[in-house]
Write a structure and sequence with these properties.
Order of helices and strands: HEEEEHEHE
Protein name: PiggyBac transposable element-derived protein domain-containing protein
Shape: globular
Number of strands: 6
Pfam families: DDE_Tnp_1_7
Distance between the termini: 39 Å
Radius of gyration: 15 Å
Strand content: 25-35%
GO molecular function: sequence-specific DNA binding
Organism: Ignelater luminosus
Largest sheet: 6 strands, mixed
CATH class: Alpha Beta
Number of helices: 3
Length: 135
């Protein structure tokens, strides 16, 4: 048990590894509503659920999770890469879930960059992501 891990009681990723990996997977953020007091609770202006815990999720096309990482600011357990925070999330989740080559990943413009798309191609993953004009 790591004393700096505030989410150690709810780590479920070992159980998620029992799920068979399918060809199509998505990466997205998720919010668990929470209105109490906690150091890692987030406020996100303009969202339907404004207060809660933010999670990075890798799921299959049926919605079953393969890997979840809580967003804890600078202590998030995903490696920093040259592809920005979003790229770090996509690459980190794919690495932690041990995705085989050939899996197709889908994500939105929060995660996308041209460099990330090139890196995923180099690693042997299919990829689809929306891009912003200014990235």
């Amino acid at each position: 048990m790591d004393g700096s891990d505030t989410f150690y009681k709810v780590r479920l990723n070992d159980a998620f590894k029992q799920i068979d990996i399918v060809e199509h997977c998505s990466v997205d953020e998720s919010i668990i509503p929470y209105y109490g007091h906690h150091g890692t609770k987030k406020f996100i202006k303009g969202k339907p659920i404004r207060f809660g815990f933010k999670l990075w999720c890798l799921a299959n096309s049926g919605g079953l999770l393969y890997h979840v990482e809580p967003h804890c600011g600078s202590s998030t357990r995903l490696p920093e890469t040259t592809y920005g925070k979003g790229g770090s999330v996509v690459l980190g989740l794919a690495q932690h879930a041990n995705l085989p080559k050939g899996v197709k990943l889908y994500f939105d413009n929060l995660f996308s960059s041209v460099g990330l798309l090139d890196e995923l191609t180099r690693l042997g993953y299919g990829r689809t992501g929306s891009l912003r004009e200014n990235r």
